[in-house]
Amino acid sequence: MTATAPQGTPTRPSKRRHVRTARGRRRALASISGRYLLLLFVLVITVGPFLWQISTSLKGPDENIFAFPPQWIPEQPTLQNYLTVAGVLPLGQYLLNSTFVAGVSTITNVMFGAMAGYALARMRFRGRTTVFALMIATLVIPFEVIMISVFVVTRGLGLMNTLTGALLPLAVTVLSIFIMRQAFVKLPVEVEESAFVDGATEWQTFWKVALPSARGSLAVVAIFSFMFAWDDFLWPLIVLRDPDKFTLTVGLVFLDGQFSADQRLIAAGTIIAILPVLALFVALQRYFFRGVGQAAVKG
Amino acid sequence: MIGRRWYVPWLFLLPSLVLLGAFYWWPVVNTGILALTDAHTLRGGEFTGLDNFRRMIGDSFFWNALENSLTFAVGVVPALIVLPLLLAVLVNTKLPGIAFFRTVFFSPVIASMVVVALIWSWMLRTDGLVNYVLQQLQIINEPAGWLSDPSLALISVIIVTVWKGLGYYMVIYLAGLQNIPDDLYEAASVDGAGAIRRFWSITVPMMRPSMVLVGTLSAINAIKVFTEVFVLTGGGPFRSSETLVLYIYERGFEGLEMGYASAMSLSLFVLVLVLSLVSQWITRRRAQL
């Protein structure tokens, strides 16, 4: 983009050069340090709560976590809380449950989203407009509006209090379908058409020609479905009743609500809950930012 | 176009259509049906016409929840329109280390709302970190009951929601900022406009479409708020922070009144619809100007 932009500076009147006096330089320096001060201020507000949580999670059993003034650096740092939370408490089970729900929902969103997206992008058929309109309609109606009836359906299928029940309503979202449709629309259709003319079936054309070219969007769909399922709270709260079926979010809130709740353990649990998504984020940052843009435009 | 057999597209669509049909389209229809019955979790409902809506109008808890939801939105939306824009402008430079700041500012977005709410409920205790810091800075003299004082509970939830949303909307604004040509700023600098003047005369007008988008998204998210209220205050104390979705949840899953809860869900839908229409109207009016 910068390469094609008109080169403005050389033709501009030399006024700008007058600003570059000693005073001007001092002012530029002041404005840069002011910017860094503001950045640091926001950094403290953003990171502070996480650091405080990490600090609490590392404090030993004999340490007063309510100390006044607060103790930022643990006096008896220990990882025991993490071990307790993962092993002794049911949190290990919650982790497994969340991994199952988020893992399967990632696979189904990628698979079904790509298939439906491909049909909408590349195939002409009767009823296409209707399907498309119905899908757009779902974007206007949030889950919170229909949660009572989703509960009724899930109960009718005998899926109450099962992980399958927690998973199915998230198994494919219209957002996944639309992101994939968009990705296929942008590909050059000629490549697929020539494969098709050469005798490939629709499925082979989709699977072997189109899908590999849409890897970036597949990653966006995968990351966002994983994060969405991993972070979901309201639906698992409705559908799951037995503590050993809880996902991590529901389980953490359940543990927090117990009178005997030890804040060190809750803190360790919350840190564990962040880690998988944080790892994904660190590894695949650009897809996150790309996904936010796409989700915003569609939502 | 790919394909010649008529049923092939439907095979591609089948899994999605089945899932969306069972867990989306049918529930939408069913919500409308249930709203007209006295359905109860443990038994089927009888058709009761508009009784649920009559009950809603006389239900002071419903109005309380609606008022809290609207107050919540009024608190959250302006903050989420303005603060992320300032943040985006702040990080939209090429200073060393700026990518680090940008990434860190985005980090609350990837944490789940449950985790964020648990972190803050720990900090917002009367003997928690927030009160300590505010007392040290001499902003308050007495520890405040952030989550236990009925006049503060909803405000605390607003603060947490804004804190979590900052990074998300910042990224949306950053995308918009890339579309403002640098020449505009350079020309304004040459004409002697300071940073604040440039922000008001260039950034704000150029970013108006992004601001409408952020306003719409944050308003719709605010009106369906649930998780942070549920975790931080549970709607209390004395229903002072109970929002609409929380009350629907309470009537539907604790009171087991599916019919009545569905009727209230429709009122939530109307609110969301009105918000979407208003934002479309604003966008279209701007386009005409």
The major β-sheet of chain A equals: none
The CATH superfamily name of the domain at 59-113 and 146-288 in chain B is MetI-like
How many structural domains can be distinguished in the coordinates of chain A? 2
- The CATH superfamily of the largest domain in chain A bears the name MetI-like
Q: How much helicity do the residues of chain B have?
A: over 70%
**Residue-averaged pLDDT of chain A:** 84
Write up this protein:
The complex is a heterodimer of chains A (299) and B (289). By secondary structure, chain A is mainly α. Chain A folds into 2 domains: 18-78, no CATH class; 89-298, MetI-like fold (Orthogonal Bundle). Chain A is 72% helix and 0% strand. Chain A contains 15 helices and no strands. Chain A has helices spanning 15-19, 22-57, 80-88, 91-122, 128-140, 143-156, 163-167, 174-186, 189-197, 202-213, 215-231, 234-239, 248-257, 263-283, 285-298. The longest helix of chain A has 36 residues, at 22-57. Residues 1-19 of chain A have low confidence and may be disordered. Chain B has a domain at 59-113 and 146-288: MetI-like (MetI-like fold, Orthogonal Bundle). Helix content of chain B is 72%, strand content 0%. The radius of gyration of chain B is 23 Å and the shape is globular. The model of chain B has no long low-confidence stretch (mean pLDDT 89).
